[in-house]
Amino acid sequence: MIDVVQAFDRSPIAELPSDDAAALENKLSLAQRRFKDRAGWLKPYQRIEILRRLASLVEGKRQDFGRLIAREGGKPLTDALIETDRAIDGIRNAADILRTWAGREIPMGLTPASANRHAWTVHEPIGVVAAIAAFNHPLNLVVHQIAPAIATGCPVIVKPATATPLNCVELVKLVHEAGMPEGWVQTFLPEERGLAEAFATDQRIAFLSFIGSARVGWQLRSKLAPGARCALEHGGVAPLIVDRNVDLDSIIEPIAKGGYYHAGQVCVSVQRIYVHKEIERAFTEKFAARVAALRAGDPTLAETEIGPLITPKEADRVANWIEEAVSAGARQLGGGRVSETTLKPAILVNPPKDAKVSTLEVFGPLTCIFPVETLDEAIAEANSLPVAFQSSIFTRDLNAAFYAAERLDASAVMINDHTAFRTDWMPFAGRHESGYGIGGIPYTMHEMTAEKMFVFKM
Question: What are the chain's domains?
């Protein structure tokens, strides 16, 4: 059995039956049979209808999903309801894309050998999808895996994070209520860690969607079956640059949101803040005052802005990293303990460049401020790590904005916004150690299809 507890106070929520090796085999076999039976593939209009019904069903349970996200995942209720709204919109987005989802014409008649022919391509489902989701967005991340699979016609088996399986289980129930036939969308809930690897690397898996740690993701990629595709979404140590000419009062709020949203448990959370020396003291004072005002506590309460970390072990780890940096010379502002899982938001000023908080993804309620003398210095420091995901710059200088955007090593550069900005239809991807492939509803749909060409000779 899998015991599910509240992230904040560790009180039990539910017990779920776990899957063993025999259950995994049954699920994989069923999914493979569904894919191999081309006569049983759902037509595009059927998939659109299912997705639209699913969106309406989730919308009808908006409050229930929001509260469940807050309880099992620890995200403050206000943000949990926003996650639910995003999930609903993502499901509708997948349905809408199908209305214009098409192949392309391949030119013929360009040479004598290609005369009297017409050619075009169509999209076909790639095959069985293995989806492994992370805990930090327990509904929306699963939607990003299930909705594209339904839209493209791929059978999908989803393994949610062990700490947060309930949103996934409830969503899949609604998928079937929306009219999805058995075997197209299934959950996989193993207790044994080795079964997760067996699942992802099975010969019948055509596409792996993995959201989680870089160590696990790259290891799984090295063991995929021949021909299997994958998309890996890992994390980063997101850099944000504050130019000397900014209006400080207008940038404090978005940077605080980007750094402490979901207690920093987001793969593109603001972590490294590079501030021009001329304004570093003023920025730090204003930023520290705003961060100190953030309310940490029970995520099911409407007034809470900072919830718990996912486990006591993670809270201990973040606290230890902060203590190590302070012992090495960093200046700490804020911080402290609310409970065994919940930390007050903290700031570290000028921690050592080789400290864990400067080089590794903290995944906790912490940001680090580093004074810099030039924009080039800030860019060099931002680009100094083997991870690269989203980054940002706040500036009122158009030249500085373009200069930084062109030189920052990142998959996306936000200008006058925090690093954690995202819409669910935009491309979302890490570079280098931060990931492989591209996420986002339409981009995942593309990854889950194979292009087939028809050549018609007159």
Answer: 2-234+434-457 (3.40.605.10), 239-423 (3.40.309.10)
Give the three-class secondary structure for 114: helix
Consecutive H or E run containing 420: none
The verdict on pTM exceeding 0.85 is yes
Query: What is the C-alpha to C-alpha distance for residues 240 and 372, in angstroms, rounded to an integer?
Result: 12
| Distance separating alpha carbons of residues 389 and 373, to the nearest angstrom | 24
Phi, psi (degrees; rounded to nearest 5) at 14:
-160, 165
**SS3 of residue 167 by DSSP:** helix
132 DSSP β-pair partners: 159, 210
Segment (H or E) for 378: helix 375-382
Q: Which of 168, 230, 267, 368 is catalytic?
A: 267
Instruction: Tally Cβ neighbours within 10 Å of residue 431.
Output: 16
Alpha-helical segments (H) within 13-153: 21-36, 44-60, 62-68, 77-97, 140-152
The answer to whether the CB of 217 falls within 8 A of the CB of 232 is: yes
Active-site position among 83, 233, 361, 433: 233
pLDDT in tens, 75-133: 999 999 999 999 999 999 999 999 999 999 999 999 999 999 999 999 999 999 999 99
> Is 373 an annotated catalytic residue?
no
Q: What is the pLDDT of residues 124-166, one digit of tens each?
A: 999 999 999 999 999 999 999 999 999 999 999 999 999 999 9
Q: What is the dihedral of CA 279, 286, 271, 384, to 10 degrees?
A: 10
In the prediction, which pLDDT does 198 show? 97
